[in-house]
């Protein structure tokens, strides 16, 4: 069933479909249909979705699929088509109001917001002001989200935190969701050669790493951090600086491979073990639906990852 742009001739059919579903239709006119999409089943409209443009934002609205087609995944296709249209139009953020589909939209990356957090142009939208119930759930989704900044800390910033920085900056693992950094409370001043050797053997970047003090990230105009993870117990017990961005924090302790005594094979095995643990945790972290997890739920998840 094709998804096509709506036309002015569809106005009455669209209003009738929305009225039968108990959704607002009085604010729709022929001009607003320029950013509506419809599912056409021959001469009939079996579903639709609309965008109301509000500068760099837009309201996603009027998502409807006839009952006989609701198990065919057509609603998801409509949402995907509307999001693709929004990106082509340069929309930065989509907003919506829903009375009972918050779980559905959360599964598609929308997150719940307080209505008081709505930008002014959204607050002036007819659906926000009066057409939708005041109990409607307000949600949003960034169309082109920026990578989140993640800082890994250990004491020396020569082994574990370096491995973690390299892993999270690998696009095949983090899917471009994160930008990783590392630092130490008492940096050794050089990266452990076995860390670089292990990264190279596993196909990871080995250039650009340096052992540095965590004060670099505590500067007033430093990188605004979203997450800070300590990977050694000693760093976790130290008084951390104030981090720009007020990031979430968690402890992901890993035994220090640089402290292992023995021959070269035993030392390399220790580095490999640390690498495997950190990679697994970062893979789990990258798979989290960050857009739909609230603060407490997300904190719980990242704490639990540190136990994996």
Which features characterize this protein?
single chain, 308 residues, alpha/beta, Aminopeptidase, Rossmann fold, 2 domains, 7-stranded mixed beta sheet, 4-stranded parallel beta sheet, 11 strands, elongated
- In CATH, the homologous superfamily of the largest domain goes by the name Response regulator
Rg measurement, Å: 25 Å
Total domain modules: 2
The topology string of helices and strands comes to: EHEEEHEHEHHEEHHEHEHEHH
- Supply the CATH architecture of the largest domain: 3-Layer(aba) Sandwich
- Considering DSSP H and I runs of 4 or more, what fraction of the residues is helical? 25-40%
Strand content: 15-25%
Shape: elongated
- pLDDT under 50 segments (min length 5)? none
> How does the major sheet shape up?
7 strands, mixed
Count of extended strands: 11
Query: What's the pLDDT, averaged over the residues?
Result: 89
User: How far is it from the N-terminal to the C-terminal residue, by CA?
Assistant: 45 Å
Which strands sit side by side, in order, in the main sheet?
1-2-3-4-5-7-6
From the 3D structure, determine the CATH topology of the largest domain. Rossmann fold
Question: Can you walk me through this structure?
Answer:
The protein has 308 residues and is an alpha/beta fold. It has 2 domains: 3-142, Aminopeptidase (3-Layer(aba) Sandwich); 148-305, Response regulator (Rossmann fold, 3-Layer(aba) Sandwich), CATH 3.40.50.2300. It contains 11 helices and 11 strands. The protein has a 7-stranded mixed β-sheet with strand order 1-2-3-4-5-7-6, sandwiched between helices. A 4-stranded parallel β-sheet has the order 9-8-10-11. α2 (74-88) links the parallel β4 and β5 (93-98). α6 (160-168) crosses α10 (264-286). The longest helix is centred in the last third of the chain and has 23 residues, at 264-286. The mean pLDDT is 89.
């Amino acid at each position: 069933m094709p998804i096509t742009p709506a036309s002015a001739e569809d106005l009455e059919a669209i209003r009738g479909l929305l009225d039968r579903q108990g959704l607002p239709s009085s604010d729709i006119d022929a001009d607003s249909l320029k950013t509506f999409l419809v599912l056409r089943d021959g001469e009939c409209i079996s579903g639709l979705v609309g965008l109301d443009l509000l500068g760099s934002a837009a309201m996603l609205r009027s998502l409807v699929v006839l009952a006989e087609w609701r198990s065919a995944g057509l609603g998801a296709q409509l949402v995907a088509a509307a999001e693709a249209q929004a990106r082509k139009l340069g929309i930065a953020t989509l907003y919506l109001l829903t009375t009972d589909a918050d779980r559905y939209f959360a599964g598609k990356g929308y997150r719940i917001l307080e209505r008081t957090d709505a930008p002014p142009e959204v607050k002036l939208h007819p659906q926000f002001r009066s057409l939708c119930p005041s109990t409607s759930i307000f949600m949003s989704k960034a169309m082109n989200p920026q990578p989140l900044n993640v800082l890994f800390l250990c004491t020396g910033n020569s082994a574990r935190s370096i491995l973690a920085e390299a892993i999270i900056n690998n696009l095949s693992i983090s899917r471009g969701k994160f930008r990783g950094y590392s630092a130490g409370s008492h940096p050794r001043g050089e990266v452990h050669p076995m860390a670089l050797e292990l990264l190279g053997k596993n196909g990871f970047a080995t250039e650009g790493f340096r052992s540095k003090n965590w004060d670099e990230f505590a500067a007033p105009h430093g990188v605004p951090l979203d997450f800070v993870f300590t990977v050694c117990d000693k760093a976790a017990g130290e008084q951390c600086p104030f981090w720009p961005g007020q990031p979430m924090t968690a402890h992901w302790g890993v035994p220090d491979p640089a402290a292992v005594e023995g021959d070269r094979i035993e030392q390399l095995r220790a580095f490999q073990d640390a690498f495997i643990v950190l990679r697994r945790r970062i893979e789990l972290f990258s798979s989290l639906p960050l857009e739909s997890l609230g603060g407490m739920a997300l904190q719980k998840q990242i704490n639990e990852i540190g136990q994996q």
